[in-house]
Specification:
Keywords: Isomerase, Rotamase, Signal
Shape: globular
CATH architecture: Beta Barrel
Number of strands: 10
Organism: Thalassorhabdomicrobium marinisediminis
InterPro entries: Cyclophilin-like_dom_sf, Cyclophilin-type_PPIase_CS, Cyclophilin-type_PPIase_dom, Cyclophilin_A-like
CATH superfamily: Cyclophilin-like
CATH class: Mainly Beta
Number of domains: 1
GO biological process, one term: protein folding
Number of helices: 2
CATH topology: Cyclophilin
Signal peptide: 1-29
Distance between the termini: 41 Å
C-alpha cells in the first residue's frame, strides 16, 4: 500500500499502475519497511500478446496529442509529448493514436487527488461488442513493450502524463495516466511521456472510481478520439 498526501492529510490507497496483459494478480507490498510511498502492482505478463510487433518504422509527424473526452467530463485535452526524453514512449503513443486504437477507450481507474488512468486498447474499448468494464485495465496493444525512459529534469507534477506498466519497469505498452496532483514518489520509477498543456479543467471533471484500487464502476468517461497534432 502507499500513503498519498492530500489537502486533508494522509490518504492510504492501494494503487495498481500497470498494463498487465493478463488477469490482474496483486502483489503484496511490504508495509512499514520504508517511509517512502509504495506501489502495489499487478503481475507482469507471462506470455506475449499474439502478433506483437515493433513500433511502426515510419515516424508519425507531430509532437502533440489532441484527446476528445465525453462523459462526466466533456471537452478537448492537448498533451505535449516529450520526444526528447521519452522518444520510444512518445512514438508508441503517436503510432496507436494514428491507428485510431485509442478511440472509444475508457478511463478505467481514477483516484481522486492522484491520477486518471486510461489507454487499454485491448479490453478498454467501449465500442467493442464484447466490452466488459471489469476487464478494462488488464490489456495492452500488439506493439512491443517499451523500456523505462526517465529524466532527472522531470517530476510527476500536476498535469504530467506517465506510462503505466506491470511489475517489470520495462513493460509499458499503451496505458497511461494523467496526474491530478503532484506525485514525486513516482519519479524514476515510471516514464513521464508528456504534459497536459490545454484542457486540464476537463481532466479534473473525469468520473472518479469507487471500486477497488480506484476502479471506475458503471459508465466511464471515454476518449472518443485521440489524434496527433502536427
Amino acid at each position: 500500500m502507499r500513503k498519498l498526501l492530500d489537502g486533508t492529510g494522509a490518504l492510504v490507497v492501494a494503487l495498481i499502475l500497470s498494463a498487465s496483459l493478463g488477469a490482474p494478480t496483486a502483489a503484496t507490498a511490504q508495509e512499514g519497511a520504508s517511509a517512502d510511498p509504495e506501489i502495489v502492482e499487478e503481475a507482469a505478463p507471462t506470455t506475449p500478446v499474439a502478433g506483437t510487433t515493433d513500433v511502426v518504422s515510419v515516424p508519425v509527424e507531430g509532437d502533440k496529442l489532441a484527446i476528445t473526452i465525453e462523459g462526466s467530463a466533456n471537452g478537448t485535452v492537448v498533451i505535449d509529448l516529450f520526444e526528447d526524453v521519452a522518444p520510444q514512449h512518445a512514438a508508441q503513443l503517436k503510432a496507436l493514436a494514428q491507428q485510431g486504437a485509442y478511440d472509444g477507450v475508457v478511463f478505467h481507474r481514477v483516484i481522486d487527488g492522484f491520477m486518471a488512468q486510461t489507454g487499454d486498447v485491448e479490453f478498454g474499448d467501449s465500442t467493442a461488442e464484447n466490452f466488459d468494464m471489469r476487464r478494462a485495465g488488464t490489456g495492452g496493444s500488439e506493439l512491443d513493450d517499451i523500456p523505462l525512459e526517465v529524466s532527472d529534469e522531470l517530476s510527476f507534477t500536476r498535469g504530467m502524463v506517465g506510462m503505466a506498466r506491470a511489475e517489470n519497469p520495462d513493460s509499458a505498452n499503451s496505458q497511461f495516466f494523467i496526474m491530478f496532483e503532484d506525485g514525486p514518489f513516482l519519479d524514476g520509477d515510471y516514464t513521464i511521456v508528456g504534459e497536459v498543456t490545454e484542457g486540464m479543467d476537463v481532466i479534473d471533471e473525469i468520473k472518479r472510481g469507487t471500486g477497488p484500487n480506484g476502479a471506475v464502476v458503471g459508465e466511464a468517461d471515454v476518449m472518443t478520439t485521440v489524434r496527433v497534432l502536427e
